[in-house]
Design goal:
Structural class: mainly alpha
Strand content: 5-15%
Largest sheet: 2 strands, antiparallel
Helix content: 40-55%
Number of strands: 2
Strand order of the largest sheet: 1-2
Distance between the termini: 17 Å
Number of helices: 5
Radius of gyration: 13 Å
Length: 73
């Protein structure tokens, strides 16, 4: 299984054109948001997910998309 964090897409869709705006709305640090956007975060704390979903007014499954890996025959 693979997981993809759709933060960049949600920020665009919800009108957050800067990290600063999401920082102010979510209470997360600019550095933490930047790390997630750059793909440098390998794991997210539940608290971080809740803050992002609250700020972006979205569901967890909109923020984190989990896909099963396809088997090659």
């Amino acid at each position: 299984m693979t997981a993809e964090i759709k933060l960049r897409e949600l920020m665009f869709y919800k009108g957050f054109d800067t990290i600063e705006k999401l920082h102010r709305k979510s209470g997360l640090s600019r550095k933490a948001i930047s790390s997630i956007l750059s793909g440098n975060k390998t794991g997210l704390r539940l608290e971080t997910i809740i803050k992002l979903c609250s700020a972006l007014d979205c569901k967890v499954e909109e923020l984190i998309v989990i896909e099963k890996e396809k088997l090659h025959s």
